[in-house]
């Protein structure tokens, strides 16, 4: 038997084993979950919320698969308040929380963690040594080490990278809008490629130029896996539900199955593993004075091993690129919807002076630009709905009293171990009780008139938990 035939037989064996495991374990898990739910009481069941359209899917399609994000969620908040119950798959009770006091508790309670399904998926995509996956002291050490690369002084040193990519975007757009061409262009796609170029160059030290070369292997694998991550379906909801209860070694076997997002994940891992090998070799040979984020972290005062730093590369690619691209795309969209503000912003930028010492625009003296970014992040945060899971029993304090379906008035809610909780940050940042009756309106001027939301601060930037990739958000 030659090597090719042996590899083929090994591949077929892995596919057969993965298929058998999936077909066997899913029915067993379903039976166990059904029996467990039947004989377990849950106080969350008494919290008011929308009725379920389906026992299999619950309210999940309305919550995470609407035609327009928040189509149901924002209306539910107005009807039921900043804390309510929805049905997950197979009758599971889940909480949706935008109550500010409850959110602060959830962010600071170490027993509130990422759900098992998300943790297992992150292990497959980012690797077990990623700061997204490690916990406890190792997480704190990695996070502290990474913070050295996110200071304002460090970020400003990447200005030439930003300018270079911006000039390439302008050139491509001018070419696409040349006389005789179509008057339409896909702004979002170009911003996706541009932010990928910036992350690769500034953070990782790889110059890929996908703006002018969109068929680059990294761009193809990266956007492929992102497409599956954000174009979800009812079947993906069920798959996520079962993922939480399937052993991780079986999920690794399932990566070799030729359907759904699995080939995309495998392709992304193949490309990023090659990049990680190149970066590890660069660290070993101490190749010069490369000034990228990974090298800055490596040269900082830290006990983190170079191998640990290299393993942050897949996370930087996915978490750093997509959230930034999404917010920038929304900012362009909002500018297009507000031509008068756009014109005033253009005049502010053109009239702004360069700092002679730093060689950059005086960003802090540009109130309209700051107002645009803050309002875009308020309306369209990078992570509007985060899922968490209670690893042990706890009590959730509430800023607003709620009345249960049994008529009981409560200001705190007992949470049982295993409870799924949605942190509705997008909804929180549209609470009329905090942001005013115009909370659903895009209104940059609210940031020019003083503090638009006194009293509650969930994040380090403008009281917003924006979920742009920064170490402080990896909680």
From TrEMBL:
Any Pfam family matching the protein: p450
Localization of this protein: Membrane
GO-annotated cellular components: membrane
Transmembrane segments: 12-35
UniProt key word Heme: yes
Gene3D superfamilies: Cytochrome P450 (1.10.630.10)
Pathway assigned in UniProt: Secondary metabolite biosynthesis; terpenoid biosynthesis
Entry keyword DNA repair: no
Keywords noted in UniProt: Heme, Iron, Membrane, Metal-binding, Monooxygenase, Oxidoreductase, Transmembrane, Transmembrane helix
UniProt GO molecular function: heme binding; iron ion binding; monooxygenase activity; oxidoreductase activity, acting on paired donors, with incorporation or reduction of molecular oxygen
Cofactor(s), by name: heme
Family to which this protein belongs: Belongs to the cytochrome P450 family.
PANTHER family membership: CYTOCHROME P450 (PTHR24305), CYTOCHROME P450 12A4, MITOCHONDRIAL-RELATED (PTHR24305:SF166)
Protein name: Cytochrome P450
Organism: Mycena rosella (Pink bonnet)
